[in-house]
From TrEMBL:
N-terminal signal peptide: none
Protein name (Swiss-Prot/TrEMBL): Tetratricopeptide repeat protein
Keywords in alphabetical order: Repeat, TPR repeat
InterPro entries, alphabetized: TPR-like_helical_dom_sf, TPR_rpt, Ycf3
TPR repeats mapped onto the chain: 68-101
Pfam family, one: TPR_16
Length: 218
């Protein structure tokens, strides 16, 4: 088994620090290997080494500048550093590259709300237009509308969210494969990462507290 395969195996069993050691050894031999950089970037984020994670994704972008998923992954790492401006800039690029992908809009909306609430609502509306079954977008759009005092529209979106949650859950559509390198999307799609981020108790509480504190337009 190669170092890369061993590192991925450790990754899949959540042994992120050990996986990083093997990815490091592999990247000494093949420093431009996008697959290894991608996995190491995820591992670094898992152990809260966010700047190292950003560096790994940046190294990939320097060689594969047309991959929306890489920009989106880097945006999540920027988000954890509370660098919302940089995160939104990366998600802008992801939207530009994949304008028909609803998850690009819903993920940008979540982070965009911290700096541009009107833009965030527009993004959620676009995500819903592209995917009317996106229950999270209905809920988060409702929260933003409620915060803006638009209770009627907020209630409509909360009701739609409840209807979708009561129906059979659907798996999100898979994202396109990253060109030139094989990346295991069943484990690492940006949407799965973003959904974990959005649905985590800690992050939802942070978002709720942000809304309760009131949004100040820049």
């Amino acid at each position: 088994m190669s170092k890369l395969e061993e590192a991925k195996k450790l990754f899949n069993t959540n042994n992120f620090s050990e996986a990083i050691e093997l990815f490091n050894a592999f990247l000494i031999e093949e420093p431009n290997h996008a697959d290894a950089l991608f996995f190491r970037g995820i591992c670094n984020r898992k152990i809260e080494n966010y700047q190292a994670s950003i560096n790994d994704f940046t190294a990939i972008i320097e060689r594969l500048s047309d991959e929306a998923t890489i920009y989106s992954e880097r945006a999540v790492s920027y988000y954890h550093l509370k660098n919302y401006k940089a995160a939104v800039e990366d998600l802008n690029k992801a939207v530009e590259l994949e304008p028909s992908n609803p998850y690009r809009y819903s993920s940008r909306a979540y982070i965009r709300a911290y700096i541009d609430i009107d833009g965030a609502m527009a993004d959620y509306e676009k995500a819903i237009e592209l995917d009317p079954q996106d229950d999270i977008s209905y809920n988060n759009l409702g929260l933003l509308q409620e915060n803006q005092g638009n209770m009627r529209k907020a209630q409509q979106n909360f009701e739609r969210n409840k209807e979708l949650l009561a129906s059979t859950p659907k798996e999100p559509a898979p994202l396109p494969e990253v060109k030139k390198q094989e990346i295991e999307e069943e484990n690492l799609t940006f949407w799965k990462v973003m959904k974990q981020l959005i649905t985590s108790k800690k992050t939802q509480q942070e978002f709720s507290n942000f809304l309760k504190s009131g949004f100040k337009k820049k």
